[in-house]
Design a protein that fits this description.
The chain is of the alpha+beta class. The chain has 5 helices and 7 strands, in the order E-H-H-E-E-E-H-E-H-E-E-H. A 7-stranded mixed β-sheet has the order 1-2-3-4-5-7-6, with helices on both faces. It is globular, with a radius of gyration of 15 Å.
Length: 149
C-alpha cells in the first residue's frame, strides 16, 4: 500500500470513486444530487484541495482531500472498504496536522463511528443547506489524543 499526492491525470478516477462511494454511503440522498456535483468536484473542489491517493500495486483504492486543516473528503472504493485503507489515511494525515475538522452526515452512522473510533469528537450539529440533511462537525486535536494516551 502506498499513500502519495494525487496527479492531475488521476482526477477522473478520483471523481469516479467519490461518486460511487457517495451514492452508496448516502442512500438517504437522491443519487441525482451527487451526479449534479461531479463538475464542481472536478473543476472547483479538487483543484483547491491537497489530495492524496492510496494505491495497491498501481491500483487506486481511495483518496483523501484536505483544505488546510479541514478534511473535505475521505473515500475508499467500495470493493476495498473494510480493509484498513481509511484507517491508514487517517493515521497518515494525523501525522501531518495538529488539528483536523470534518463534516459528516448524521445518518451516515458507519462514517460517524469510524471517525469517533479514530479520536474525532462531535463539536457541532447543523443542517446542510444543499441536501437539508443533518450534519455533524467533528474535530480531532493532536494534544487531546496525547493527553488521553
Amino acid at each position: 500500500m502506498t499513500i502519495r499526492e494525487a496527479k492531475v491525470e488521476e482526477v477522473d478516477q478520483i471523481i469516479d470513486i467519490w461518486y460511487r462511494s457517495s451514492v452508496k454511503a448516502h442512500q438517504f440522498i437522491e443519487s441525482t444530487y451527487w451526479e449534479s456535483q461531479k463538475n464542481a468536484m472536478k473543476e472547483k473542489y479538487l483543484p483547491m484541495s491537497e489530495t492524496y491517493v492510496v494505491s495497491l500495486q498501481h491500483n487506486m483504492v481511495g483518496f483523501l482531500s484536505m483544505v488546510e486543516d479541514y478534511m473535505a473528503a475521505l473515500f475508499i472504493d467500495e470493493s476495498f472498504q473494510g480493509e484498513g485503507y481509511g484507517k491508514e489515511f487517517v493515521r497518515f494525515i494525523k501525522g501531518c496536522r495538529e488539528k483536523i475538522t470534518l463534516k459528516v452526515y448524521k445518518k451516515n452512522s458507519k462514517a460517524v463511528q469510524f471517525y469517533k473510533n479514530h479520536g474525532f469528537v462531535v463539536v457541532d450539529e447543523f443542517v446542510d443547506q444543499n441536501t437539508l440533511e443533518q450534519e455533524y462537525l467533528m474535530e480531532w486535536v493532536k494534544c487531546d489524543e496525547e493527553e488521553a494516551g
